[in-house]
Design brief:
The protein is mostly helical. The chain is about 70% helix and about 0% strand. It is built from 18 helices and no strands. Helix 7 packs parallel to helix 9 and helix 12 packs antiparallel against helix 13.
């Protein structure tokens, strides 16, 4: 009977039959085939995909409005049976491989396929909702139905990601979500990144959308979580391997994700929200310094010298804005460099020289005099630092105060 329902409806026949029964037959067949070894996985999947075209043809050929409306309603669920089939097949794989920790390739493919189906469904619901909001004489009841459907499917998608995290490939799934969702909405991307505890893609999308404050807030939260997590993990690993103190839990070739974001977007963030950006950067560098000192692991070390070009750019913007301002605001570049010198005890001549050049540009010499008095012993000279300011700003080289005897 299930086979008859499938064949007749797939080929545009028996359209006047109860479509609820037909849908139930599809779901029942999908669930049975998911646990069956006698029907080819590839052929079954192609059958479920092919039904979409048959439904569309039936919609065009149908002349009865009632039948057409019924088909339209059922087409919303045209991939439901395929989803049920894939979910049943995945459940079968989980049961048959419960005693092993292996990650079968077919299981990874199943999870990736299911992810793509979820995204297709979410895209369709979103587009239906988006188009409905532009229709005149909008039926609010239909709009609420679209919202409810989208929210329900999104919750199912989140649950699927959390349950099958180990069977999803990070890069492949990220590329899939990014390509299908773009930067229009980030709910799906955020759910995926939350599952893998890596919010870098979400931060990048927010910055691309020029939502700088939300991006900075998320960067601040993520950096705290990132460093605390690695601190706890490294400490545990260190205690478990006291016999070999050189063993590190992390690969030194692995990128410091927080550092990548800080270096890449520092100039843009300083340009638009300088005060908030420097506050967050100080917090991040403080976390990094604590981790490096306590664990003796340079992997997490952030280099403030890499922010000098962004600080120089910010200083030019700050200087031009202050010339026309009635109230002088604090130079955030000086604030960050002072933090590096005083709290982090940074001895890099480039950092000291640029801070000195900023002190010289101030109308009050008190900061410059105090700095020189507190740093009477010069740091090691750098052959490349003499004309640093000139190279960065394009202006004539300024005197390298750190090359002079205080």
């Amino acid at each position: 009977e299930v086979g008859d329902y499938w064949y007749n409806f797939a080929h545009g026949k028996d359209l006047n039959r109860n479509l609820v029964e037909v849908k139930e037959a599809y779901i029942k067949a999908a669930r049975c085939w998911g646990y069956s070894r006698f029907k080819s996985f590839e052929n079954t999947t192609l059958d479920f995909l092919a039904i979409r075209d048959h439904i569309r043809n039936a919609m065009h050929s149908a002349h009865n409005s009632n039948v057409n409306n019924q088909i339209g309603d059922s087409s919303i669920n045209e991939l439901d049976a395929l989803m049920v089939y894939l979910m049943s097949k995945l459940e079968w794989y989980n049961k048959t491989n419960a005693s092993t920790n292996s990650k079968p390739t077919q299981k990874v493919l199943l999870c990736t396929f299911i992810t793509e189906l979820f995204l297709h469904h979410l895209n369709r619901l979103w587009q239906s909702h988006d188009s409905s909001t532009h229709v005149q004489n909008l039926n609010l009841n239909n709009l609420n139905i679209h919202k409810e459907r989208y929210s329900r499917v999104l919750m199912e998608f989140k649950s699927f990601l959390e349950t099958n995290r180990e069977s999803l490939d990070w890069k492949i799934t990220l590329d899939l979500i990014s390509s299908m969702c773009g930067t229009v909405r980030i709910e799906e991307l955020y759910s995926f990144c939350k599952t893998f505890e890596n919010y870098v893609p979400v931060i990048e999308v927010l910055i691309e959308r020029q939502e700088y404050k939300p991006a900075l807030n998320l960067l601040s939260e993520y950096s705290e979580f990132y460093y605390k997590k690695h601190f706890t993990t490294s400490n545990t690993k260190k205690n478990d391997n006291n016999s070999n103190s050189k063993t590190s839990h992390f690969n030194n070739e692995e990128e410091n994700e927080i550092g990548v974001i800080v270096y890449k977007y520092s100039a843009l963030l300083m340009e638009h929200i300088p005060h908030e950006t420097i506050e967050v950067f100080i917090k991040i560098f403080r976390f990094s310094h604590k981790l490096v000192v306590n664990l003796n692991n340079s992997h997490f070390k952030l280099n403030p010298k890499k922010l000098i070009p962004s600080l120089v750019r910010y200083h030019h913007i700050y200087h031009s804005s202050q010339s026309n301002a009635s109230i002088q605001s604090k130079n955030e570049a000086i604030k960050f460099l002072e933090f590096c010198v005083k709290e982090l005890q940074n001895k890099d001549p480039v950092i000291h020289n640029y801070l000195l050049s900023l002190y010289v540009s101030l109308p009050d010499d008190s900061h410059l005099i105090a700095f020189i008095n507190n740093n009477s012993t010069p740091a090691p000279l750098s052959s490349s630092s003499s004309s640093f300011s000139g190279r960065q700003t394009g202006l004539p080289p300024t005197p390298n105060f750190y090359d002079m005897q205080y």
